[in-house]
């Protein structure tokens, strides 16, 4: 049903009446009457009731206003759309587009914005911006030099990276943070453009390592296979030119990677491609990149340990640029006092290598390793990350080994550039044996990280202990034990908590909450656990957990104007998480056009684990009294048209 109305008049009246806290949203915290009369241009009036329907109305009015319309037709089906359908539709049709970036003439101004380092749309006109290009990519260097000259309103400098990128070089350019180029391509007419990619959202306005895999699961689910393929192509570019899949493509991330998921991404994309000589050639390029990453990064000298298992290891020098102000003050203050310097002066001198503090160097090696793990930050890893062979990393590498073996066997007749399928299966068997030896605790029936310096397990209970099920590395006995012993510890009302409360420990002013610990839950953990449970036949438990997670997403979206954030407190089932820099995806006016990358994906993927009955149950989140009012409004609309 179409309702023709004055957009500005109704929008202003709606906000004045219902947005009582003036945050440009309509949420359960507003104290309006939650009953608004929408006026059409023909004089008809329609009463719309309830937070969810009113926030939908607000969003639809704003969308029409952004199109430049003064008088427009609103679609009542969108205003009264069921929560599951609305969120899923917006993710597919709006949010993915809102999160897609390119590093070319059309997308450059959008992607160089980096609020982590103080670069905003306004500041672009006030300060110099930097594009870093690999030493051997002359095409990219020439291209960016040309387009930089076209932007007369902003100053862009294109910098060619050295042939060998060292931690010392990365420290030297800390005061010149910039975007790192990714893959370019030419169309049939010879025009160069950037291979697109999806960013997480909010302050994370670049292509991240492990985020991209989970985002791609959502993209593939929503039929956007070419965009997921483009993400893989950009990873191959990073491996070729930067030597690793980067934490993200900013200059301050050059010295560290992130959890390895490329084989999984390639396999998921390849499944959807038409089988042809072209797609097989693409697979071969990706397979070579995966093998190179395995040898040069994950079992390279910095990351392989005397246990035969691998560790995370970030070797950037100094304080990470991308952290929120004050994040390390508790750590740095005693050293500043000992040096007799004000804290900010000490920070600068330490970053500029004017002060030598070996204890801090060691601390930041561990900190960089935490950030490479993707779990930044957690008391599971803080202060010891570089000394650990973790369950998560070695499960992922086991899957690399089995994935590579499977691809070589099924697509390349058991041999690929000197690599044999049987050799990779042997690597996997060895890793599985070592993981059981060092990481499995028979008494507790749980996998734990192993400190190879102290030669003992940490005993920290984490959701990452489920990774062996996702990777299909756990034996049936181990999987059953994890479900029996670990699941009851971590399962909460809103999904799986990232750690146990006991392992996290007491939170004090000196020991603040870390975002990857209890009570918070994260989308990648949920998706991997659902799939892991399904792989071992625990379908009903997987559905139960998926329902809890999607309920949490929908509950917050229904009550808070469509909010879809980075993470949740799964104990209280709220997006109001204040650890560290807060919660990305919660700050917007009127409507979100992005959501948050892997949260969007978890919703779309999670629906596949639910029965129709569970989905119908989710749609009952709207209070019954407002459903009744919805029926009344439909009647009123129909009557007015007679």
Protein architecture, described:
The radius of gyration is 26 Å and the shape is globular. It is mainly alpha-helical. Helix 21 packs antiparallel against helix 22. Among the domains are: 2-81 and 626-640, no CATH class; 103-194, no CATH class; 329-387, no CATH class; 504-625, no CATH class. A 3-stranded parallel beta sheet has the order 7-6-8, with helices on one face. Strand 2 and strand 3 form a beta hairpin. The longest helix has 22 residues, at 277-298. The chain is built from 25 helices and 22 strands.
Tags for this model:
642 residues; mainly alpha; three-stranded parallel sheet; three-stranded antiparallel sheet; globular
Strand and helix map with partners:
Blueprint: E1 2-6, H1 7-18, E2 35-39, E3 45-49, H2 51-66, E4 71-75, H3 76-79, H4 83-99, E5 100-101, H5 108-111, E6 128-133, H6 138-150, E7 155-160, H7 167-172, E8 179-180, E9 184-186, E10 192-194, E11 197-198, H8 209-221, H9 225-242, H10 262-272, H11 277-298, H12 329-339, H13 343-351, H14 358-372, E12 388-389, H15 391-411, E13 415-416, E14 419-420, H16 421-438, E15 440-441, E16 446-447, E17 450-451, E18 456-457, H17 467-470, H18 476-485, H19 487-490, E19 491-492, E20 495-496, H20 501-504, E21 520-522, H21 523-535, H22 539-559, E22 567-569, H23 597-607, H24 612-618, H25 624-640
Parallel strand pairs: 6-7, 6-8
Antiparallel strand pairs: 1-4, 2-3, 5-11, 9-10, 12-17, 13-14, 15-16, 17-18, 19-20, 21-22
Helix pairs in contact: 1-2, 4-23, 8-9, 8-10, 8-23, 9-10, 9-11, 10-11, 10-15, 11-15, 12-13, 15-16, 21-22, 21-23, 22-23
